[in-house]
Amino acid sequence: TMLNRLFLYTLSLIATLSLFAQSDTLQLPFREDFSTYTGRPDSTKFLDTGGVYVGNGYGINPRSTNQATFDGLDFDGLPYEQISSGGNPNAINNGITDYLISKPIDLSNTTGDVILSFWWQKGGVEVDLSPELEEGDTLRLFFLNEDSTWVQVWPFGDSKTAIINTPSGSDYLSDSLIISDSSFLHGGFQFLFEADGSLSGN
Q: CA 80 → CA 14, 77, 124, 125, distances in Å?
């Protein structure tokens, strides 16, 4: 069976991409390991939004030179919600912080299995200096279906248990999802990684 692979290597993504001549829609294979640049995610592969930072200073024993970091800060390094002068630092709101959205990928004429693979690490560098992750802090993966609805596909079951039970700063773990639901096999497929945590910073 032929395997069409979309590799996401992190958050350390792993795929060679080519473009349709007159479109921003990407074709398989899609590959990204973040190793050739720092700063904002590559705008030829991802939407230029979401606050994710690409760099090499956060992962512990990373799987690639750089990683996509969901650190709870925007592109300018500021919290999404700042505590006002004299405000209560314990009154912290949680919500969606950083997110990473792929550009549309054409899955309409695939043959064989389509697989999205990625590595993830909970916490990161300088665990002793970083605040502990709270119970509500999590990372989720969504696929865009043919009705333009985002559907959560990860974590569930064992993968959700792993995210809850894995200590901060542990080695990278890998996951692979077979994209078999026909509602995802369309010409404008996208994936979205979304972090949920403190809006007042990492």
A: 29, 9, 20, 21
What's the CA gap between 68 and 37, in Å, rounded?
A: 11
> Would you call the peptide bond into 155 cis, given omega within 30 degrees of 0 as the criterion?
yes
Q: Do residues 141 and 153 make contact, with C-beta atoms less than 8 angstroms apart? A: yes
Query: In sequence order, what are the residues at sequence separation of 6 or more whose Cβ sits closer than 8 angstroms to the Cβ of residue 140?
Result: 152, 154, 155, 193, 194, 195, 196
Q: What count of Cα atoms within 13 Å lies in the side-chain half-sphere of residue 37?
A: 8
Cβ pair 104, 201 in contact under 8 A: no
> pTM of the entire structure?
0.79
Lowest mean per-residue pLDDT among 31-45, 145-159, 160-174: 160-174
| The pLDDT of residue 26 is above 50 | yes
Helix, strand or coil, per DSSP, at residue 158:
helix
Structural contact between residues 8 and 143, judged by C-beta atoms closer than 8 angstroms = no
111-141 pLDDT tens trace:
788 889 888 887 765 444 444 444 456 788 9
Q: What is the pLDDT of residue 86?
A: 59
Pairing of strands 138-144, 191-198: antiparallel
Q: Which residues share a beta bridge with 192?
A: 101, 142
